[in-house]
């Protein structure tokens, strides 16, 4: 028996979540102290920044008029982001209501909406009727969707709260600005990880009041939590990605290339929309995305554990192993954060990126120790995992240490590999920058080659983790390996959110007309942030691969599929169609960005051509018009790709049956991971190649510049092409493969009972 008692589990998990929430609030409080109420030079109060506080000039720095401008710009960015999310969430509320009905009707119809208890799957007595599972799955779906929505909103709120504060702190030095940006990112990371864990735990405790000892039914209904989280993440990622890239592409093509004005120049009509997009795409979208990964990996592990000896023995402690891993991760990430904010001080620009990389390494080492402790106190020495169609797998507890650890260290490898291929401190990006000497075409060629090559090491790392985990603990091993990769979620999100916050800080410094030295500091923060954003996307994609495979295992178990034989025609058809879906999805999202960017380019050109004094800086552009274009386009264009992902499993499972659907999921997983990694890294490399030329920090970089040179213009074009790859299509693909898998898991009883209508009709 495990050393932990069920009572201690009931205490430790929520306590860890509460600790994470309290720590996030403390970080928020520290950030809020950057500013206090003040007056501008003329004696009028500085404009309220939207959060009940006022930004003020610190002693010995620039005049208060600059602070006033910072506050006004922050207010405009905050207002635009809030407006977009409010409108998007109205659409999502309609979707949640409709899809909730789908879940209840499909699952309730498995046994004709009968309210009579049915025999338990383990043969121990009577368990909940299908209509009860339908109801609780629907409730779990709504809880997951609401938590995902809250995660995105909280992340966006703290980002818009912190961007101008980071700018103001940059006047005191790059170290002070770094601390503000990183603390703000930590707020998002800990709130998301802790809220996700707490809501999931409370849902399990409350659902158990009805289910009693029916752990199989309980955890199968809890799978709806992951479906809700990923559904919102899909629309948040796609909608936010289209928004930000429409604005970014429009601002770059007209502002940088045609008008030869700096990035974030206040004369550019699309500049506010561009900064808003950083928050709704890279913050709100990424937050919802990684929350979905956490929810799905937890649900997959819980579903599989319920049909193992854990479930048969009613071993609550062992079944709570996934929750205990996540709890330990919050505590580990808290300790890790102190290394960046308290133990080591950033004194110059060169220390920024190493400090962020150190966060990854420290959290991984500490988490490895924590995994060993959790395995020792929470698991029996041996147990069995049921495998459909095969003999149960006998597992030793130390085997799960290697399963979780393999996912954890695979995540670190993916992070460092992503950093190598996307940071301009290394040869691959410098080669891409050098290729700009001969124009945009060679820049595109080199960037694509870099992206394809960057797939190799992450895929090998994922493959090793899968092989080791499956060998030791079958599909349960893969599920906890995914949890291992996500166990340091709070730290990963902190360094990811740091990027857009720094990017916004630089934009505010430019628009407010701050001295060049301030912009140099914010540019240094932003350059490191581009790399951390790419690392965050790498984590998201790598975890999606493991999560999808774990969900796939849970699906075949729940659907009663003993073998997925890709040589058979039903499975092979699904396999090849599934491999096509990421291409179809990417085409839809890329075209959506293109259409939205076209409208943005036309509007920016119109304003430059028709507003007298705009280029001279004597009048302000119409920022709100560009914000409205991005908002309308993103909300309109996110629906078709979202419908493709949500409807495909329902159509395939209903018409062709669970076997074909299993092939479809395998095909989407295999091709989706490759395309997502390649697209994200290609776009990240193009972006940092441009910044490498702009910074001019080395003789080689200076030979390619300065801004406005032919090489720089070629780099801008490459960055513009890469924007939708790294911020829309690439990151959204990991949600595609996860979402289809968890949706298939939730609807598995319906597909097993009523699926394959066409094959049944034609007796195939």
From TrEMBL:
This is Uncharacterized protein. It comes from Diphasiastrum complanatum (Issler's clubmoss). The lineage of its organism: Eukaryota, Viridiplantae, Streptophyta, Embryophyta, Tracheophyta. It comes from the Eukaryota.
């Amino acid at each position: 028996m495990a050393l932990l008692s069920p009572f201690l589990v009931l205490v430790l998990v929520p306590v860890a979540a509460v600790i994470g929430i309290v720590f996030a609030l403390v970080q928020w409080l520290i950030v809020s102290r950057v500013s206090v109420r003040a007056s501008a030079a003329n004696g009028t109060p500085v404009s309220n920044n939207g959060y009940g506080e006022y930004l003020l000039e610190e002693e010995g720095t620039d005049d208060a008029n600059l602070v006033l401008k910072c506050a006004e710009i922050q207010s405009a960015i905050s207002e635009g982001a809030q407006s977009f999310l409010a409108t998007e969430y109205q659409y999502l509320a309609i979707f949640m209501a409709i899809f909730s009905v789908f879940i209840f009707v499909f699952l309730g119809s498995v046994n004709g909406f009968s309210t009579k208890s049915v025999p338990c799957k383990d043969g121990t007595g009577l368990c909940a009727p299908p209509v009860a599972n339908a109801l609780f799955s629907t409730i779990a779906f709504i809880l997951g969707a609401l938590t995902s929505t809250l995660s995105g909103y909280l992340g966006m709120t703290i980002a818009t709260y912190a961007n101008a504060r980071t700018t103001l702190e940059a006047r005191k030095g790059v170290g002070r600005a770094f601390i503000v940006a990183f603390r703000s990112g930590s707020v998002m990371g800990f709130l998301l990880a802790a809220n996700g864990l707490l809501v999931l735990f409370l849902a399990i405790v409350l659902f158990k009041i009805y289910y009693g000892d029916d752990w199989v039914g309980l955890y199968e209904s809890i799978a709806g939590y992951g479906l809700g989280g990923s559904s919102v993440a899909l629309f948040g990622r796609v909608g936010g990605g289209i928004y930000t890239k429409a604005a970014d592409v429009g601002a770059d093509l007209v502002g940088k290339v045609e008008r030869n004005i700096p990035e974030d120049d206040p004369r550019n009509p699309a500049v506010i929309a561009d900064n808003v997009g950083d928050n709704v795409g890279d913050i709100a979208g990424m937050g919802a995305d990684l929350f979905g990964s956490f929810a799905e990996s937890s649900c997959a592990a819980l579903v599989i554990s319920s049909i193992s000896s854990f479930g048969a023995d009613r071993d609550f402690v062992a079944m709570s192993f996934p929750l205990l891993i996540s709890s330990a991760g919050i505590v580990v990430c808290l300790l890790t954060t102190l290394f960046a904010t308290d133990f080591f001080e950033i004194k110059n620009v060169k220390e920024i990126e190493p400090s962020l990389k150190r966060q990854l390494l420290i959290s991984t080492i500490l988490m490895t120790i924590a995994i060993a402790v959790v395995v020792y106190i929470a698991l029996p020495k041996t147990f069995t995992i049921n495998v459909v169609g095969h003999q149960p797998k006998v597992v030793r507890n130390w085997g799960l240490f290697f399963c979780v650890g393999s996912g954890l260290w695979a995540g670190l490898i993916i992070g460092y590999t992503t950093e190598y291929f996307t940071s301009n401190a290394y040869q691959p990006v410098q080669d891409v920058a050098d290729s700009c000497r001969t124009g945009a075409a060679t820049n595109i060629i080199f960037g694509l080659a870099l992206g394809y090559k960057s797939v190799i090491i992450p895929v090998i790392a994922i493959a090793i983790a899968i092989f080791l985990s499956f060998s030791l603990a079958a599909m349960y091993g893969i599920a906890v390996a995914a949890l291992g990769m996500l166990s340091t979620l709070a730290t990963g999100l902190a360094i990811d959110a740091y990027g857009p916050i720094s990017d916004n800080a630089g934009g505010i410094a430019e628009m407010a007309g701050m001295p060049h030295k301030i912009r140099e500091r914010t540019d240094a923060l932003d350059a490191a942030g581009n790399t951390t954003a790419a690392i965050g996307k790498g984590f998201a994609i790598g975890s999606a691969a493991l999560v999808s495979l774990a969900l796939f295992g849970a699906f075949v178990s729940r659907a009663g599929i003993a073998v997925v034989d890709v040589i058979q025609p039903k499975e092979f058809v699904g396999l090849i169609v599934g491999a096509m879906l990421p291409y179809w999805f990417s085409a839809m999202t890329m075209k959506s960005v293109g259409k939205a960017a076209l409208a943005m380019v036309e509007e920016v050109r119109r304003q430059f051509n028709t507003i007298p004094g705009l280029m001279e800086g004597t009048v302000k552009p119409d920022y709100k018009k560009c914000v409205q274009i991005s908002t309308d386009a993103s909300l309109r264009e996110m629906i078709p790709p979202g419908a493709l992902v949500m409807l495909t499993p329902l159509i395939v499972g209903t018409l062709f049956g669970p076997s074909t659907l299993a092939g479809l999921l395998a095909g989407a997983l295999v091709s989706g991971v490759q395309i997502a990694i390649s697209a994200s890294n290609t776009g990240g490399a193009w972006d940092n190649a441009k910044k490498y030329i702009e910074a001019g920090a080395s003789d080689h970089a200076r030979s390619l510049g300065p801004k406005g040179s032919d090489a720089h213009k070629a780099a801008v074009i490459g960055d513009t092409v890469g924007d939708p790859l790294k911020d829309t299509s690439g990151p959204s693909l990991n949600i595609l493969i996860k979402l289809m898998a968890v949706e298939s898991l939730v609807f598995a009883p319906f597909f097993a009972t009523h699926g394959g209508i066409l094959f049944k009709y034609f007796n195939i």
